[in-house]
Design brief:
Elements lengths: L2 H10 L3 E7 L3 H13 L3 E4 L15 E2 L3 H5 L3 H17 L4 E10 L4 H16 L8 E3 L1 H7 L10 E10 L1 H14 L3 E3 L2 E9 L2 E9 L5 E11 L5 H8 L7 E12 L8 E4 L8 E6 L2 E5 L16 H14 L11 E10 L14 E5 L4 E6 L5 H16 L33 H10 L15 H10 L5 H8 L2 H4 L1 H19 L3 H16 L23
Parallel strand pairs: 1-2, 1-10, 2-7, 4-12, 10-17
Antiparallel strand pairs: 3-6, 4-6, 5-6, 8-9, 9-10, 11-14, 11-15, 12-13, 13-14, 16-17
The structure holds flavin-adenine dinucleotide (FAD).
Flavin-adenine dinucleotide (FAD) binds next to helix 2, strand 8 and strand 15.
Amino acid sequence: MQRDSALARLRAGSETFDLLVVGGGASGLGAAVDAAARGHRVALIEQGDFAKGTSSRSTKLVHGGVRYLGQGNVALVKSALRERGLLLRNAPHLAYSTAFVIPNYSWWGGPYYAFGLTLYDMLAGRLSLGSSKWLSRDETVGHLPTVETKGLASGVLYYDGQFDDARLAVNLAQTAVERGAVLVNYCACVGLTKSAGQVNGVLARDGETGAEFAIKARAVINATGVFVDELRRFDDAKSSPMVTVSQGVHLVLPKEFLPGTSALMIPKTADGRVLFAIPWHDKLVVGTTDTPNVAASLEPRALPAEVEFILDHARQYLTRDPSESDVLSVFAGLRPLVKRGAGGNTAALSRDHTIAISHSRLITLTGGKWTTYRKMAEDVIDQAERVAGLSHKPSPTAALAIHGAGGALPSTKALQFYGSDAASISTLMAGDPALAAPIHASLAITPAEVLWHARQEMARTVEDVLARRTRSLVLDAQASIEAAPAVAALLARELNRDAAWTAQQVRSFTDLARGWLLRAPKGPATPARSPAVAQVA
Ligand SMILES: Cc1cc2nc3c(=O)[nH]c(=O)nc-3n(C[C@H](O)[C@H](O)[C@H](O)COP(=O)(O)OP(=O)(O)OC[C@H]3O[C@@H](n4cnc5c(N)ncnc54)[C@H](O)[C@@H]3O)c2cc1C
């Protein structure tokens, strides 16, 4: 996946693409894969890095959504469970089954949740990941060794999927490119072009040089997440907002807070939501929250109340009480929720997706969730074929292997998430042992991977490497700050950048990473600018 050649092709302006996708998150990348796999000529531009927005900040679940059953949305759950099964099949290097346990502190909890989860299993049909079952008190502690035992009556075990969201985004980008799509990151849509009142392309700006150019397309798909209304206003300055934005925060703790491989599911928090504590990359991810009506932003910040809410619940359910100083990283993501009239309770709004087509034929795709990205893409490309006047071709993505799938999983655990690419990274390491030495004692990241990210995965910045090509920033923000100078030096060599660029990269990454810490960072020396958590609005 090469940025320079892809950008040159877009800038040349000589082609009219069948479809142009704006936004490189789950929705846009899924759409690009689907369109390219059908044989359409498709381009995609992303203003930041792939998955820079919400798509790198999820709970990392591939799930039907147990709680939507409680809302009576059986069709949504059934469809998502099918998608869960397909993703585990098509990207086995990134998505896998995990045991989840609900601890019960009342006599009725066991039968109640066991009944609901049996229905959940049944809805998954042949794609079920295993049967749920009631657990005795001792079996519950066997799965969750540090669960609070005071008053514990029993537990319920069920299976759901987990994945690496940003790695999936990168692999989807590669899958699209392999099918002929043209993808460029750090390239923003800054306007729409029209002919006779109909959208016929976009005005794009290269984020690295500032150069602006037009890209022609028969139809444009707006997949910009919480920013969809901005693009809709390029189309029609008077269009009324379509999405409302809610924020969800996660804390990352050392794995000792919940050893083992099972995840803890808390079915009802103080505000009636579910909360998870999930083992992920040898750490524990705990979340999430639902704070309505926040402003759209590419780098949202956790509110102190959200941090406290998560810590409070973790303290109730775990024997060892986590405090702010235990938190390795805190990240916030924004949900683009399609408006259903007025109302402040976003937890009750639908997570189903919506496709809107404007009078001037701008196609907007929003809502949904990562788990259902493939179905969302299939639906939007069906619509886009009609809008663009393309002949209909059926979507082949239900059985399409995603880049990295295929062959046995790599034996080196640290490289497992690269799937079939792990062999090439190992070859780099074998050619030069210095490339195999970890960059930081607390992070599973080597120089060979950084070279791979720059050469094959379109990584352009230190943040791309530490936040999304590897998940270092999510797993340990302080260690990532310490690793930044080494990563910057490696990238500078690969991308042919000078010392000023290298220093600026370290500064801007450190500044950003401070927002993922709850405590003051330790070196390298950088100016303290952004607060660790936002002030309550
Ligand atoms: C806290 C939280 C937890 C979640 N957990 C889960 C989960 O466990 N499982 C699950 O299935 N789903 C989960 N979701 C939902 C899922 O993450 C989202 O539905 C999905 O990531 C949305 O993807 P998207 O592509 O629509 O938006 P985004 O990922 O935000 O992508 C939109 C992209 O458009 C780009 N963009 C914006 N404007 C422009 C422009 N003018 N030009 C070019 N590019 C532009 C942005 O930079 C961004 O990268 C969660 C969501 C949140 C917030």
